[in-house]
Amino acid sequence: MAERSSFVVVANRLPVDEVINDDGERQWRPSPGGLVTALHPVLAEHQGTWIGWAGGDGEAPEPFELEGIRIHAVPLSNDELERYYEGQSNATIWPLYHDAVETPVYKRRWRETYRLVNQRFAEAAAEVAEEGATVWVQDYQLQLVPAMLRELRPDLRIGFFLHIPFPPIELFMQMPFRAEVLRGLLGADLVGFQQRLAAQNFVRLARHLLGLRYEGQSIQVDGRKVKAGAFPISIDTKDMERLAADPKVQARAKEIRAELGDPETIILGVDRLDYTKGIELRLKAFRELLADGKLKVGDAVMVQVATPSRERVEHYQTLRVRVEREVGRINGEFGRVGVPAVHYLHQSMPKAELAALYAAADIMMVTPLRDGMNLVAKEYVASRADRGGALVLSEFAGAATEMRQAFLCNPHDPDGVKDALLRAVGAEPADLKRRMRTMLRHLRSHDVAAWAKSFLDELSDAADLSTPDQP
Ligand code: GDG
Hints:
By secondary structure, the chain is of the alpha/beta class. The chain has helices at about 35-45, 80-95, 110-130, 145-150, 170, 180-185, 195-210, 235-245, 245-260, 280-290, 315-335, 350-360, 375-385, 400, 415-425, 430-445, 450-465; strands at about 5-15, 15-20, 25-30, 50-55, 65, 70-75, 130-140, 155-160, 190-195, 215, 220, 225-230, 265-270, 300-305, 340-345, 365, 390-395, 405-410.
């Protein structure tokens, strides 16, 4: 039997990567990320457990401890991965929750596997959580877990955080097993969202779909209270500032500028290759500005890092074709020998290389059609302390609510995107510095540790209140 913990995180993915050593043995090394950085202190203090899938298609490892965190792997077969993760999570829920910018695909067998896998995660959590423990469930792949877990273990304090947007009622209502998903989420004591509007969508949906009563952000369910709230996630600001200020990273930033031919303006995009991120529209805006003669190849250069993502899902395969066609078109029409207009990198790179790119870029383009938050926007600002640089940011990224000093644009309006980019190119350095300083100040006080603390504090209050009054 697994050892029990008073604090448990449940997420699709474990914060570890598999490595095979020289003797052919499987080993695990920590895979750094914002979430694990934020939760590490809480996990270490409570001998906490992280439950998730270990990646790869090999057998799940036995529970083990890594850097003070107990790692508890949930196995997934190839078929389950295809149906629960690639299908239901990434071809149904992901597009639906992002304003259906791609058409969601609905399949009965995907839903069935999603249910089965969610049950497996809930059972794992029920097994490792000690009496009265706090369990924090993460994201859209595991929306049924809170209710399944409450059924197994009514003594637990359960929180849920959704990293992506939560759609308005009309869109949510498309989903075939909509009531089950909503009831799944309502199994939590506290349901957290990136934005206030998302929390409002949720409480209104509870009334619309299940006829539940609510007061403010608090919903009455089976004699319990379920609280909804906004908890905008952030980055490890200090760590990002430190990395970007590292002399090696600074030297690399200079080198990148030189390698690009010392242009006046470096325009950067960094995204997972995902249709929500607005990569195509950004490329198109750049092409039109070159065609209009408002930007000139050589003076301006664009670098687009598009990290490979969900490559077995069809939407992603077609997106890749469209993006690469557009890059080819721009370079074909406007490039010269040795001077391409767009440098396109379909690869994943080390964080230090990303930091060097951020530090080198004059303009960062973050233009999603819809995004829960967008951490790239925040990382860029943290990498540019007092060094200028400009952030062009979509109004449809959660980050736009906090980062009002960015050059905001509507990504559905190509002229608006072009205008924001040109305003950023022509801005006075003093103006840019002022904007960046204000945003950085915000990020220093609102970092990922503050995010985790505010959620967990609220969860502990919400759980105390949610117990029904004694008659
Ligand atoms: C979801 C929500 C929400 C990217 N390429 C490389 C690399 N990255 C890192 C970035 C950044 C992260 O990946 C991407 O985070 P985003 O927030 O931009 O986007 P999603 O992956 O869609 O995340 C989003 C987030 O969850 C958190 O709640 O903000 O709205 O969609 O940290 O730096 N990192 C490295 N190499 C790369 O090539 N090392």
